[in-house]
Amino acid sequence: MRVLGIDPGSRVTGWGLVEAAPRGARRIAGGAALPVGRDLAEKLGDLAAKVEGLLDEWQPSVVAVERAFVGRNASSALRLGEVRGALFAVAARRRIPVIDYPPATVKVAVTGSGRAEKDAVARGVALILGGTHAPGDATDALAVAICHLLHVRTAERLAPAVDPLRGARTRLEVRRG
Q1: Catalytic one of 39, 46, 82, 137
Q2: Kind and range of the H or E element at 133?
Q3: Residue ranges of the domains in the chain?
């Protein structure tokens, strides 16, 4: 499975591509897309074209996107929503599934803590993928892609514990008296 992780931003959108490997994940590529244009529509169009190029070049099986963090600035949240909408539309046109993860879930996946700072996320990504990864948008995008791989692997391990006729249950059934 090849996952394109995206850390969306109106000024810089980080991206990172990982692939499932026998012992975890393998980094394939990563970088940042800086939208260019005079107004919002041109910038969103440019960003969409850049993501289309990534999808064409790398052929991911899924796109994992970090969910928007809604802070106190409603204008920033709205702008981020517009960026996410453009990215979702590009993937949908290619029929590539898009999964979004809250920032805390991504942080837990790579550091064990939902409140980890950027430098801790970078260390976690480096530990999982090897090499060095500086804090930044591309490293955050790699963390999102890793998060998705970990969630898929967990679901695969739990799959035998689900009986489609009776619903989910643990491997060890608890008998109630």
Answers
A1: 137
A2: none
A3: 2-168
Look up 7 and say whether it is catalytic: yes
Superfamily (CATH) of domain 2-168: Ribonuclease H-like superfamily/Ribonuclease H (3.30.420.10)
Alpha-carbon distance values, 27 to 78, 116, 157 (Å)? 31, 21, 23
Provide the residue-wise pLDDT of the chain in tens; the chain has 177 residues.
999 999 999 899 999 999 999 888 999 999 999 999 999 999 999 999 999 999 999 999 999 999 987 667 888 889 999 999 999 999 999 999 999 999 999 999 999 999 999 999 999 999 999 999 999 999 999 999 999 999 998 888 777 665 555 555 444 444 444
The C-alpha atoms of residue 63 and residue 43 are separated, in whole angstroms, by: 21
Q: Which of 66, 140, 163, 173 is catalytic?
A: 66
137 part of the active site = yes
